[in-house]
Amino acid sequence: MYKPGVQNSNAGALSRIGALASEGNDSDEIDSDMKLKILQEKHDSILGGHRGMNKTYESIKRHYQWPNMKREIEDYVKACAKCQINKTLRPKKRAPMEITTTARHPFERCALDIVGANDGNNVWEQVYSDLPGRLE
Ligand SMILES: [Zn+2]
Questions:
Q1: Is 50 left (phi over 0), alpha (psi -120 to 50) or beta?
Q2: Nearest CA among 28, 99, 94 for reference residue 66
Q3: Does pLDDT of 135 surpass 60?
Q4: Residue 112 pLDDT more than 80?
Q5: CA 18 / ligand 1 centre spacing (Å)
Q6: Spacing, Cα 5 to ligand 1 middle (Å)
Q7: By the 8 A CB rule, do 62 and 78 touch?
Q8: H helix or E strand, kind and range, residue 75
Q9: What is the spatial distance between Cα 11 and Cα 18, in angstroms, rounded to a whole number?
Q10: How far is CA 78 from CA 37, 43, 85, 135, in A?
């Protein structure tokens, strides 16, 4: 019996599953909940680091694939609120290079850098340097 497309939703669903299967996708079918989890893990997490569209895609492509994957990743990254905020907060131009004066004798100009990860281990490294002076 003929059914117009709108009423024929059962057949539509079946043929969509058929299309997924015929695309040679080895992995089990990835539903939208699973996609969301993958996107959150590969984009929103600390490891994901809110990287751009291409890096997020490369990272997901290594483990998963599904139809329209690239497009869906692009849409997700474009809609990411944190990425949009970062984009507006990030300064558009770098500060201009400054011409600094060169030290005339040792220890006239020094720098102290403290480097470490704020990971609770309290391991820090200090680098004290005498900025190179002009040898005359
Ligand atoms: Zn983001």
A1: left
A2: 28
A3: no
A4: yes
A5: 33
A6: 38
A7: no
A8: helix 69-79
A9: 10
A10: 17, 11, 11, 53
* Distance from Cα 88 to the centre of ligand 1, integer Å: 13
Strand pairing class (124-130; 110-116): antiparallel
Determine the distance separating the centroid of ligand 1 and the alpha carbon of 93, expressed in angstroms. Answer: 21
pLDDT tens digits for range 17-75: 444 444 444 556 889 999 999 999 999 998 899 999 999 999 999 999 999 999 999 99
Q: How far is the CA of 20 from the centre of ligand 1 (A)?
A: 28
Q: Find the Cα–Cα–Cα–Cα dihedral 114, 120, 122, 127, rounded to 10°.
A: -20
How far, in Å, is the centroid of ligand 1 from the Cα of 44?
A: 6
Cβ atoms within 10 A of the Cβ of 56, count? 23
* 22, 99, 117, 118, 129 from 112: Cα distances, Å: 62, 20, 17, 18, 6
